[in-house]
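Cast an eye over my tokenised protein here and flag anything odd:

===
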Amino acid sequence: MNITINGVNFSTNATSTDELRREFLDKNSHFYEFLDKNELINADIFILNGFAIKENFALNENDKITLIRRGVMPNLEILKPMIEARNTPELNNALKNACVGVAGLGGLGSNIAISLARVGVARLVLVDFDIVEPSNLNRQQYYVRHIGMQKTEALKSLIADINPFVEVITHEIYLDAKNIAEIFAPCSIICEAFDNVPSKKMILGEAGASLADKSVICASGMAGFYSSNLIKTIKFAKNLYLCGDFSNEAKIGQGLMAPRVAVCANHQANLVLRLLMGESV
């Protein structure tokens, strides 16, 4: 049968993972040279179709296997399948041509972008006109060394350190009704992550106008330290979704902090994956 090991196609007569492991160690097998070259003969993590296994499992046609040796920096050519290893093959297929936009790179946007980069969305379009300030560090995915940098560049550098196979397109511009459709033209899904009411109203309006051919995921209500269980995801209109508790906005005495902001951001990021997979809310 045909299987894929760390992104490379092989054929095997093995019918189980235990049989395959024995074949790996046979110096006459066609696996051995590949595994030896990439220091994977003694790999101690065996991932089958996104799930790490230790016991014996039956093999099926086109199974995807990833081998990882703890503490060893892999060659770049096999790093990509290692990063993707915990996804199912179906999800990786959905991600490989996906393009997602993030409007605003503050507490919501920086967390959304990092989560989507970690899971392996092929292309991200990131938009923000602002720079990193010290007060951003309580909830946004930036470091002290980023203070004074454009948020677009700071986040792009972080994503390169996390998943260098994600294509990141940045725009340092203030989004409005006149430019938003052009900026996000390549995207099928847009995550709204603005920190001001006028911009949120703008994208809500454009969701039914210039962005009508895209899915738009907005957020409302994630301030304070109220229960995380209040944050939810709903479908609001044909192509418009809302994440949050819909009531607890940021105001004096009720600030935005990392835990609830990140919960809401990851509601948005998870909905991106569901939509890419053809699932509903």
Q: What stands out?
A: The chain has a mean pLDDT of 96. The longest strand covers residues 232-237. The longest helix spans residues 258-276. The chain is about 30% helix and 20% strand.
